[in-house]
Amino acid sequence: MLTQSTFIFLKDLAENNNREWFTENRKRYEAAKKEVEKLVGALLKGVNEFEPLPNTEVKDCIFRINRDIRFSKDKSPYKQWFSAAIGPGGRHSGRIDFYLHIQAGESFLGAGMWNPTPKQLAKFRQEIDFNPEGLKSIIEAPEFRAYFPEIWGESLQRMPKGYPENHPDIELLKRKQLFFMHKYSDAEVTTPDFAAEVVKGCRLIKPYCEFLNYLFFEEAEEAFEL
Protein backbone atom coordinates (compact mmCIF):
# COMPACT_ATOMS: atom_id res chain seq x y z
CA MET A 1 0.00 0.00 0.00
CA LEU A 2 2.69 2.49 1.04
CA THR A 3 6.04 2.41 -0.76
CA GLN A 4 9.57 3.42 0.18
CA SER A 5 9.16 6.55 -1.96
CA THR A 6 6.85 7.97 0.71
CA PHE A 7 9.49 7.51 3.40
CA ILE A 8 12.19 8.94 1.12
CA PHE A 9 10.01 12.01 0.59
CA LEU A 10 9.50 12.44 4.34
CA LYS A 11 13.23 12.06 5.02
CA ASP A 12 14.04 14.64 2.36
CA LEU A 13 11.38 16.96 3.77
CA ALA A 14 12.95 16.68 7.24
CA GLU A 15 16.26 17.86 5.76
CA ASN A 16 14.69 20.60 3.61
CA ASN A 17 11.82 21.91 5.68
CA ASN A 18 11.11 25.14 3.83
CA ARG A 19 8.47 26.40 1.43
CA GLU A 20 10.80 26.74 -1.54
CA TRP A 21 11.84 23.07 -1.43
CA PHE A 22 8.27 21.93 -0.80
CA THR A 23 6.98 23.90 -3.79
CA GLU A 24 9.64 22.37 -6.02
CA ASN A 25 8.75 18.87 -4.75
CA ARG A 26 4.97 19.22 -4.63
CA LYS A 27 4.45 16.38 -7.11
CA ARG A 28 6.36 14.05 -4.77
CA TYR A 29 4.18 15.22 -1.90
CA GLU A 30 0.99 14.62 -3.88
CA ALA A 31 2.14 11.11 -4.81
CA ALA A 32 2.94 10.29 -1.18
CA LYS A 33 -0.36 11.76 -0.02
CA LYS A 34 -2.26 9.56 -2.48
CA GLU A 35 -0.61 6.49 -1.00
CA VAL A 36 -1.64 7.58 2.49
CA GLU A 37 -5.19 8.25 1.29
CA LYS A 38 -5.44 4.71 -0.10
CA LEU A 39 -4.18 3.32 3.21
CA VAL A 40 -6.69 5.35 5.24
CA GLY A 41 -9.47 4.26 2.89
CA ALA A 42 -8.60 0.62 3.61
CA LEU A 43 -8.52 1.34 7.34
CA LEU A 44 -11.96 2.94 7.28
CA LYS A 45 -13.33 -0.11 5.48
CA GLY A 46 -11.74 -2.49 7.99
CA VAL A 47 -12.64 -0.56 11.14
CA ASN A 48 -16.20 -0.08 9.94
CA GLU A 49 -16.71 -3.82 10.38
CA PHE A 50 -16.62 -3.44 14.19
CA GLU A 51 -17.20 0.29 14.71
CA PRO A 52 -19.73 2.15 12.55
CA LEU A 53 -18.19 5.16 10.79
CA PRO A 54 -21.19 7.00 9.30
CA ASN A 55 -20.47 9.97 7.05
CA THR A 56 -16.71 9.59 7.59
CA GLU A 57 -14.51 9.97 4.53
CA VAL A 58 -10.77 9.77 3.99
CA LYS A 59 -10.48 13.56 3.78
CA ASP A 60 -12.08 13.83 7.23
CA CYS A 61 -9.34 11.71 8.80
CA ILE A 62 -6.00 12.91 7.43
CA PHE A 63 -4.32 15.82 9.19
CA ARG A 64 -2.78 18.66 7.19
CA ILE A 65 0.97 18.47 6.67
CA ASN A 66 1.29 22.18 7.41
CA ARG A 67 2.33 23.00 10.97
CA ASP A 68 0.66 25.63 13.13
CA ILE A 69 3.68 27.78 13.95
CA ARG A 70 1.86 30.74 15.52
CA PHE A 71 2.87 29.87 19.09
CA SER A 72 5.90 27.69 18.40
CA LYS A 73 9.59 28.56 18.57
CA ASP A 74 10.14 26.02 15.78
CA LYS A 75 9.10 27.84 12.62
CA SER A 76 9.49 24.82 10.29
CA PRO A 77 6.39 25.08 8.09
CA TYR A 78 5.76 21.35 7.58
CA LYS A 79 5.38 18.22 9.65
CA GLN A 80 7.82 15.41 8.96
CA TRP A 81 5.04 12.83 8.96
CA PHE A 82 1.58 11.94 7.75
CA SER A 83 -1.11 11.24 10.33
CA ALA A 84 -4.77 10.34 10.55
CA ALA A 85 -7.52 9.95 13.13
CA ILE A 86 -9.69 6.91 12.50
CA GLY A 87 -13.11 7.12 14.11
CA PRO A 88 -16.62 8.55 13.59
CA GLY A 89 -16.13 11.99 12.10
CA GLY A 90 -12.40 11.56 11.67
CA ARG A 91 -10.07 14.17 13.15
CA HIS A 92 -12.97 16.41 14.20
CA SER A 93 -14.81 13.85 16.32
CA GLY A 94 -13.73 15.35 19.65
CA ARG A 95 -13.63 11.86 21.16
CA ILE A 96 -10.98 9.23 21.82
CA ASP A 97 -10.20 7.61 18.45
CA PHE A 98 -7.41 5.63 16.81
CA TYR A 99 -4.38 7.67 15.76
CA LEU A 100 -2.05 6.50 12.97
CA HIS A 101 1.35 8.17 12.56
CA ILE A 102 3.49 7.54 9.47
CA GLN A 103 7.09 8.74 9.73
CA ALA A 104 10.42 7.28 8.69
CA GLY A 105 11.54 5.12 11.60
CA GLU A 106 8.77 6.41 13.87
CA SER A 107 5.45 4.99 12.61
CA PHE A 108 2.90 3.89 15.20
CA LEU A 109 -0.74 3.26 16.06
CA GLY A 110 -1.88 4.83 19.30
CA ALA A 111 -4.92 5.72 21.36
CA GLY A 112 -5.84 6.78 24.85
CA MET A 113 -5.88 9.63 27.34
CA TRP A 114 -3.46 12.28 26.09
CA ASN A 115 -4.63 15.80 26.93
CA PRO A 116 -7.63 15.38 29.26
CA THR A 117 -9.39 18.38 30.74
CA PRO A 118 -9.18 18.78 34.54
CA LYS A 119 -12.77 17.52 34.75
CA GLN A 120 -12.00 14.44 32.63
CA LEU A 121 -8.89 13.66 34.66
CA ALA A 122 -10.90 13.94 37.88
CA LYS A 123 -13.48 11.49 36.48
CA PHE A 124 -10.71 9.11 35.43
CA ARG A 125 -9.23 9.11 38.94
CA GLN A 126 -12.62 8.72 40.56
CA GLU A 127 -13.29 5.66 38.40
CA ILE A 128 -9.90 4.17 39.29
CA ASP A 129 -10.65 4.74 42.97
CA PHE A 130 -14.12 3.17 42.84
CA ASN A 131 -13.74 0.51 40.17
CA PRO A 132 -10.11 -0.07 39.07
CA GLU A 133 -10.85 -3.52 37.66
CA GLY A 134 -12.94 -2.03 34.85
CA LEU A 135 -9.86 -0.44 33.32
CA LYS A 136 -7.29 -2.98 34.48
CA SER A 137 -9.20 -5.86 32.90
CA ILE A 138 -8.70 -4.09 29.55
CA ILE A 139 -5.15 -2.75 29.67
CA GLU A 140 -3.66 -5.67 31.60
CA ALA A 141 -5.11 -8.37 29.33
CA PRO A 142 -2.21 -10.40 27.89
CA GLU A 143 -3.20 -9.87 24.23
CA PHE A 144 -3.57 -6.12 24.77
CA ARG A 145 -0.21 -5.71 26.50
CA ALA A 146 1.53 -7.90 23.95
CA TYR A 147 0.44 -5.56 21.17
CA PHE A 148 0.64 -2.29 23.14
CA PRO A 149 3.68 -2.66 25.39
CA GLU A 150 4.57 1.03 25.32
CA ILE A 151 2.77 3.41 27.67
CA TRP A 152 3.26 7.08 26.97
CA GLY A 153 2.37 10.14 28.97
CA GLU A 154 3.18 11.99 32.15
CA SER A 155 2.50 11.11 35.78
CA LEU A 156 2.43 13.16 38.95
CA GLN A 157 5.44 12.90 41.22
CA ARG A 158 3.17 12.72 44.26
CA MET A 159 -0.27 11.32 44.96
CA PRO A 160 -3.14 13.56 43.73
CA LYS A 161 -5.03 15.38 46.47
CA GLY A 162 -7.84 13.44 48.10
CA TYR A 163 -6.29 9.99 47.75
CA PRO A 164 -4.24 8.09 50.36
CA GLU A 165 -0.54 7.46 49.75
CA ASN A 166 -1.06 3.72 50.30
CA HIS A 167 -3.79 3.38 47.67
CA PRO A 168 -3.37 0.00 45.90
CA ASP A 169 -3.64 1.66 42.46
CA ILE A 170 -1.38 4.60 43.21
CA GLU A 171 0.43 4.45 39.85
CA LEU A 172 -2.79 4.67 37.84
CA LEU A 173 -4.09 7.50 40.03
CA LYS A 174 -0.89 9.47 39.46
CA ARG A 175 -1.28 9.31 35.67
CA LYS A 176 -1.92 12.60 33.91
CA GLN A 177 -1.83 10.85 30.54
CA LEU A 178 -2.30 7.18 29.65
CA PHE A 179 -1.61 6.64 25.96
CA PHE A 180 -0.74 3.26 24.43
CA MET A 181 1.34 2.77 21.29
CA HIS A 182 2.37 0.02 18.92
CA LYS A 183 5.34 0.89 16.71
CA TYR A 184 5.85 -0.36 13.18
CA SER A 185 9.11 -0.56 11.26
CA ASP A 186 9.36 0.98 7.80
CA ALA A 187 9.48 -2.56 6.41
CA GLU A 188 6.19 -3.43 8.14
CA VAL A 189 4.50 -0.27 6.87
CA THR A 190 5.37 -1.10 3.27
CA THR A 191 3.99 -4.66 3.34
CA PRO A 192 0.75 -5.39 1.42
CA ASP A 193 -1.09 -6.44 4.59
CA PHE A 194 -0.19 -3.37 6.65
CA ALA A 195 -3.78 -2.03 6.64
CA ALA A 196 -5.05 -5.34 8.04
CA GLU A 197 -2.38 -5.20 10.75
CA VAL A 198 -3.44 -1.70 11.81
CA VAL A 199 -7.10 -2.75 11.83
CA LYS A 200 -6.11 -5.61 14.14
CA GLY A 201 -4.53 -3.08 16.50
CA CYS A 202 -7.61 -0.84 16.37
CA ARG A 203 -9.80 -3.78 17.31
CA LEU A 204 -7.56 -4.59 20.29
CA ILE A 205 -7.51 -1.07 21.68
CA LYS A 206 -11.18 -0.32 20.98
CA PRO A 207 -12.35 -1.39 24.50
CA TYR A 208 -9.98 1.13 26.07
CA CYS A 209 -11.28 3.89 23.79
CA GLU A 210 -14.84 2.91 24.70
CA PHE A 211 -13.97 3.02 28.40
CA LEU A 212 -12.67 6.59 28.09
CA ASN A 213 -15.45 7.79 25.79
CA TYR A 214 -18.11 6.48 28.14
CA LEU A 215 -16.35 8.03 31.14
CA PHE A 216 -15.74 11.42 29.53
CA PHE A 217 -18.88 11.85 27.45
CA GLU A 218 -21.67 9.28 27.64
CA GLU A 219 -21.76 8.85 31.41
CA ALA A 220 -22.66 12.51 31.88
CA GLU A 221 -25.37 12.26 29.20
CA GLU A 222 -26.96 9.24 30.88
CA ALA A 223 -26.94 10.94 34.26
CA PHE A 224 -28.69 13.95 32.72
CA GLU A 225 -31.35 11.75 31.13
CA LEU A 226 -32.09 10.11 34.45
Detailed description of the structure:
The protein has helices at 4-15, 19-24, 26-47, 58-61, 118-130, 132-139, 142-147, 170-173, 186-189, 194-225, and strands at residues 82-86, 98-102, 107-113, 150-152, 178-184. Strands 1-2-3-5-4 form a 5-stranded antiparallel β-sheet. By secondary structure, the protein is an alpha+beta fold.
N-to-C series of helices and strands: HHHHEEEHHHEHEHH
Our count of helices gives: 10
Helicity, in percent?
40-55%
How far the N terminus sits from the C terminus, by CA atoms, comes to: 48 Å
Query: Class by helix and strand content?
Result: alpha+beta
The shape, in one word, is globular
- The beta-strand count equals 5
Uncertain runs are: none
- Radius of gyration computed on alpha carbons: 19 Å
| Average pLDDT | 94
**Hey, roughly how much beta strand do the residues contain?**
5-15%
The strands making up the biggest β-sheet line up spatially as: 1-2-3-5-4
Sheet bearing the most strands, described?
Answer: 5 strands, antiparallel
List the helices and strands and how they pair.
Blueprint: H1 4-15, H2 19-24, H3 26-47, H4 58-61, E1 82-86, E2 98-102, E3 107-113, H5 118-130, H6 132-139, H7 142-147, E4 150-152, H8 170-173, E5 178-184, H9 186-189, H10 194-225
Antiparallel strand pairs: 1-2, 2-3, 3-5, 4-5
Helix pairs in contact: 1-3, 3-10, 5-6
